[in-house]
Design goal:
The complex is a heterodimer of chains A (522) and B (129). Chain A has 522 residues and is α/β, with parallel strands linked by helices. Chain A has 16 helices and twelve strands. In chain A, the strands form three sheets. Chain A has a seven-stranded mixed β-sheet, with helices on both faces. In chain A, strands 10-12-11 form a three-stranded antiparallel β-sheet, with helices on one face. Chain B is globular and about 35 Å long.
Chain lengths: 522, 129
């Protein structure tokens, strides 16, 4: 029986998009169909329930079996909803959301690259997903082998003799790195007091230093956006524990004086910490361990494409040089003959800084990162770095002239523009960012790094196609033209989102963090 | 941009109003304009000691978080408490109601190192280029 529904291609004639073609963004955004959704507290009906509990037997009072002190009274305003209402509530909210699987997400410094579904599938294999951290080593050989192999691979890729695997994310990796640096100096008789940090650094750098009891000294980068050896030499003394450098830095510029800077710091007994957040830019091309770095955290969710929040926790292994090996936190995985063993007893590593996270680290992330490294291989990893740089430089070339480039120096995986050319018409970086939403792109990072006033920091990543980049460029150029022709319209953006532009100032000054019965919801 | 002649200024964009050893400190009109809408101010406690050139607090806007740098060394003798609940005052009135702390300067010689209004205006113009 052929074609029982009677469908024929001509029936689809005229069944175009419901959107007004005049009102479709250059990256395809339309108003679509988004459903308004009240707060969960404003829904439901007294007595409605999403779960079925067994009936209480006659004469029984479960509350009587619980100590009175542990019994909770009624909660005013607790939503009472059916299962379908709950499901629709959260599904609708999720439809208001934006993710890398929805569209372009050029958030500079965050590296919002696509996470391949093959890595997801492997992380869900029952042997990994169901592995219990308290299983003995003899029953966890596969998991231990994977951790050991990933540790070897990361160390080789970045040029370090070994890596700590347990830190839960990049920021904890930094904290762990600084703890090892402190332990190293303490073991030599003096923890020292200062950490040097360039003005282009991520905010986590001074935070990690301060958490370890160090005061921070800010180093000014030069007019070319680079850190210069003489600046470091002036600030360097024997009270400096370490310098923290991101290479390439947050302007996307390679710190070409890194070897000389490392030599200056090492000569006075200091260590060189590498913020590996931008490691993706030089992946497979250059190794931080060869540049003079002593410690560096890898952000697996950036360079090795594990999910950013939401889809799973982060993971921030830390590469170290030989001098820091004794201070590595436990546990570590060692290979003995053909078996793998988890070292957990501080008696085996008496100078360890201890345990910084429960169990072994974020196992699911290890599986995803290892899958990616194996899938890409050495040549593929190098292509990641090369394509990330190519994509960013394509956007840079196509937008130059339309937006001001505060630094002319060559850049790698990201490019920072500012709003200088738009300011005259009263249009700011925030207006440009909000208008991009109407075209169908997540905005870039704005107002960071702090050395650029009105920064617009674009990082396309290697996973985007030329077609997507061309659409983005067209949208950005259209916004630059609109800033001249109709600046007021830009100030009204975004128009296509469920909510118009939110009052971020008022939200920060007078935050309302908790719903209470009877409150007026705006 | 308003830079009153009777105030002293730092290259970190704080102003200082000097009455004998008492120095009132805030951030300049240029600083508040660059920061944008101020949403949070963190100030030291009365009795804390601040050091010239070192941070004494934090000011946060919708764009960025910035350190506040002390123009002189000394003990904090007064703090503008109401700013914490009304950070917008820093934008609205940076030189009067938006003052932040009063310091009892321990080394009056440090005051000579501060900029006058004309020198600060020149510094701001250079920085904007």
């Amino acid at each position: 029986m052929a074609n029982p529904t009677g469908w024929k291609p001509s029936m689809e004639k005229g069944a175009g998009s419901g959107a007004d073609p005049q009102d479709t963004g250059l990256m395809g955004a339309t108003r679509g169909l988004a459903v308004e959704e009240p707060l969960v507290f404003e829904q439901g009906s007294p007595g409605r329930c999403a779960i079925s509990l067994p009936a209480v037997p006659e004469g029984s009072d479960p509350a009587a079996e619980i100590p009175a002190a542990l019994l909770r009274g009624e909660i005013a305003g607790m939503p009472e909803m059916a299962e379908l209402e709950v499901v629709r509530h959260f599904t609708r909210l999720s439809q208001w959301n934006w993710g890398i699987d929805t569209g372009f997400y050029p958030l500079g410094s965050c590296t919002m690259k696509y996470n391949p579904k093959s890595s997801e599938a492997l992380a869900r294999l029952p042997g990994f997903a169901g592995a219990h951290p308290l299983l003995p080593g003899s029953m966890s050989q596969g998991a231990l082998e994977l951790i050991w192999k990933l540790e070897r691979a990361l160390s080789e890729i970045a040029g370090f003799p070994a890596s700590v695997m347990s830190p839960a994310a990049g920021a904890q990796g930094e904290l762990c790195g600084l703890m090892m640096i402190r332990a190293y100096h303490v073991a030599r008789g003096n923890p020292r007091h200062k950490v040097l940090i360039p003005d282009t650094a991520h905010g986590t750098n001074p935070a990690s230093a301060a958490f370890n009891g160090y005061s921070t000294v800010t180093l000014e980068s030069g007019p070319d956006g680079r850190l210069h050896p003489e600046t470091v030499a002036r600030a360097m003394d024997e009270d400096v524990a370490a310098i923290m450098i991101t290479n390439p830095n947050t302007l996307g510029i390679f710190e070409s004086h890194i070897a000389e800077i490392a030599a200056i710091v090492h000569a006075k007994g200091g260590l060189v910490y590498g913020d590996g957040a931008n490691f993706n830019a030089i992946l497979g091309v250059a190794r931080p361990g060869d540049m003079g770095f002593d410690v560096m955290q890898y952000n697996l969710h950036k360079t090795f494409a594990t999910p950013h929040g939401g889809g799973g926790p982060g993971s921030g292994p830390v590469g170290v040089v030989d001098a820091l090996l004794p201070f590595m936190p436990l546990p570590v995985v060692v290979k003995e003959g053909e078996t793998y063993r988890l070292v957990t007893d501080p008696a085996e590593r008496p100078r360890t800084i201890g345990k910084i996270r429960e169990f072994w680290g974020n196992m699911g992330m290890f599986v995803r990162a290892w899958a990616l490294i194996r899938e890409l291989g050495p040549e593929g990893l190098r292509r990641v770095g090369e394509l990330a740089v190519l994509n960013a430089n394509y956007v840079r070339a196509e937008l130059s002239g339309h937006y001001n480039l505060p630094y002319q120096t060559d850049t790698l995986h990201e490019v920072v523009f500012d709003d200088k050319l738009q300011k005259e018409a009263g249009v700011s970086t925030m207006d440009i960012a909000k208008r991009l939403i109407d075209h169908g792109s997540h905005p870039p990072t704005v107002y960071f790094p702090l050395v650029v006033h009105g920064a617009i920091m674009i990082e396309p990543t290697e996973t985007e196609s030329k077609e997507t980049l061309d659409q983005f460029v067209a949208a950005m150029r259209a916004i630059a033209a609109e800033a001249k022709a109709d600046p007021e319209a830009l100030k009204a953006a975004p128009r296509k989102t469920v909510r118009a532009r939110l009052d971020e100032t008022r939200a920060a000054r007078k935050p309302v963090l908790r719903w209470t019965p009877g409150m007026k919801v705006e | 941009m308003n830079f009153p002649d009777d105030l002293k200024y730092t290259r970190d964009h704080e102003w200082a109003s000097v009455q004998g050893a008492k120095v009132t400190v805030g951030i300049t009109d240029f600083a508040q304009d660059q920061l944008g809408d101020v949403v949070y101010v963190e100030l030291p406690d009365v009795g804390d000691v601040v050091k010239k050139g070192e941070t004494f607090g934090v000011v946060e806007s919708t764009k960025a978080v910035s350190d506040l740098f002390a123009p002189v060394t000394g003990k904090v003798i007064e703090v503008n408490g109401p700013l914490v609940d009304a950070p917008e005052t820093v934008n609205e009135d940076p030189y009067e109601e938006g003052w932040m702390i009063v310091v009892e300067a321990s080394d009056p010689k440090e005051l000579a190192e501060l900029l006058d209004a004309a020198a600060y205006r020149k510094f701001v113009e250079e920085e904007q280029e």
